[in-house]
């Protein structure tokens, strides 16, 4: 990844090609040990895979969940200083990762999480459920999820996988049916919507149950939509003329329970 | 026929998601009977959607 300094123009004009007496480019003169350019080193550091994504994700999680608590009325100077230190280690950890991996991980993960926890413990009134905004809480949960993913495998936009010339091209045994991705994406969106609905339950005695149910139902919807999206290809292998008996039973059970429940609801009201 | 079954399966997943959403909303409004009813409907709709597209035993 150190191509930035290698391709950049040299300050003394050595970047222009040296032409020999015959007009052909002369061989480059042997160069001794050079001092690393700090500017180039900095740019190289930022192009290391994972550095920028971790810095951005830590700053995002900090801005959504830590800063509002520390810089609210509930936080004093101590809490604010700790919050700033938290941001500092969250940024310093990823930057140190390419050169000092162990220290970088300890700062970027352990120290960042520890300081965030301390800030939250010191500002309990800012995190009171009655004051918690649903949308901000949801964004905060996503921000911490993204932060956790950012410390996994770095996102690489360019893969440099070794190519095996001896082996043939591996082909997938089957392809996804048309519309599989939109169906699964719709299932994921529906699952997220269910979690948002569960978060909007304000009654404290039911909120926990609703959130637990929301997570379980979201998982069920996502997995069912994925199953439906993929199973359509398997079902194509044989001509379908009617519904299978089990499916017919399930549909009839659905209709019977729906009508009976609706009638009971009407009678109760 | 195959296309109709595909659409029915996708529709049932949508019905399940909507039923679950209204069920959660009813749970928050302290309407327990309605919440349980809607969640059972959602569960049955999900089961029906996957059963419809399950490959038949004889075809394997």
Portion in strands of chain A: under 5%
What is the average of the pLDDT values of chain A? 78
Unreliable spans of chain B are none
Q: Give the ordered list of helices and strands of chain A.
A: HHHHHHHHH
Point out poorly predicted stretches of chain A. Answer: 1-33
Query: What class do helices, strands and sheet pairing of chain B give?
Result: mainly alpha
Q: How is the topology of this model organized?
A:
The complex is a heterodimer of chains A (269) and B (60).
Chain A: H1 3-7, H2 38-47, H3 51-70, H4 77-96, H5 101-122, H6 134-150, H7 180-199, H8 204-235, H9 245-268
Helix pairs in contact in A: 3-4, 3-5, 3-6, 4-5, 7-8
Chain B: H1 2-28, H2 32-52
Write a structural description:
The complex is a heterodimer of chains A (269) and B (60). Chain A has 269 residues and is mainly α. In chain A, 63% of the residues lie in helices and 0% in strands. Chain A contains 9 helices and no strands. The N terminus of chain A is likely disordered. Chain B has 60 residues and is an all-alpha fold. Chain B has one domain. Helix content of chain B is 80%, strand content 0%. In chain B, helix 1 packs antiparallel against helix 2. Chain B is elongated and about 40 Å long. Chain B starts with a helix and ends in an 8-residue tail after the last helix. The chains are: A mainly alpha (269), B mainly alpha (60). The interface between A and B is large, with 52 and 41 residues.
